Amino acid sequence: MKMNRKFAAALGVVAVGTLGLTACAGGEEAATGGDASSAPMSSSSSAPMTSASPSESMSEDMDAAANLVGPGCAGYAEQVPDGDGSVEGMAQDPVAVAASNNPLLTTLTSAVSGELNPDVDLVDTLNGDEFTVFAPVDEAFAAIPEADLTAVVEDADMLSSVLTYHVVPGQLTPEEVVGMQTTVQGEDLEVTGSGDELMVNGASVICGGVQTANATVYLIDAVMMPPAAK
Asked: Composition bias, kind Low complexity: at what positions (predicted)?
């Protein structure tokens, strides 16, 4: 299916106002909402299992937020201060599970899990290796005209192509991700800027460097289109 110019324009950069793009507080503390049972535990034959000490919890929180960049990190923390979808909570789960717990990524989660099209289910793939994921937030999908979005969703090949174009093999930090990157879809995308001003093919990184158990996630404000579909 060849995508028309109207859809190409619709998949351009979409500003996200609801996140309140305020300065990213890289070390901002939020209450941990992850599943404690998924964290590695040291074995002991004499002492029962106990929850992590305050100092251990603080250390985990600091690590999860250590590489955050983007003007919307503070807004993200305000919207999702704790729980499984928070910065600390997402660090406990593989990426598809972590995204499903994030209230900002409900449309993306539906798209990769087979809910929108049963022939496109990428959950096992995303959870099975290390990736860098550029994750469009819900407002980015909402800005696409409904008819155009429906056309893509109903075309399994096109939907798969668009989704895998947002995924790069390996976990890349905000410093490492800058430059040309080859996606799982096979074509390249370009990350430019630095710090809180990272851009991906012209889409803005709202909050990036978010860790999951197997991936590094960059929340972005647009759905990107593979060059071959333009």
From this structure: 28-57
**What count of other Cβ atoms lies within 10 Å of the Cβ of residue 50?**
8
- How would you classify the pairing of strands 203-211 and 188-192? unpaired
Closest by Cα among 83, 92, 191, 84 to 133: 191
pLDDT classification of 65: cutoffs 50, 70, 90: confident
pLDDT, mean of residues 106-110: 97
User: What is the rounded distance in angstroms from the CA atom of residue 156 to the CA atom of residue 176?
Assistant: 32
Contacts 24+ apart (CB under 8 A), 83-87: 83/33, 84/33, 84/34, 84/35, 85/33, 86/30, 86/31, 86/32, 86/33, 87/30, 87/210, 87/211
Q: Parallel, antiparallel, or unpaired for β 215-220 and 131-136?
A: parallel
CA pair distance 25, 42, nearest whole angstrom: 32
Is the distance from CB of 138 to CB of 220 less than 8 angstroms?
Answer: no
Whole-structure pTM value: 0.74
Which residue spans within 70-130 are E strands per DSSP?
none
Strand order in the sheet with 179-182: 167-169, 131-136, 215-220, 203-211, 199-200, 188-192, 179-182
* C-beta neighbour count of 149 within 10 angstroms: 21
Closest CA to 148 of 225, 54, 90, 85: 225
179, 161 Cβ separation under 8 angstroms: no
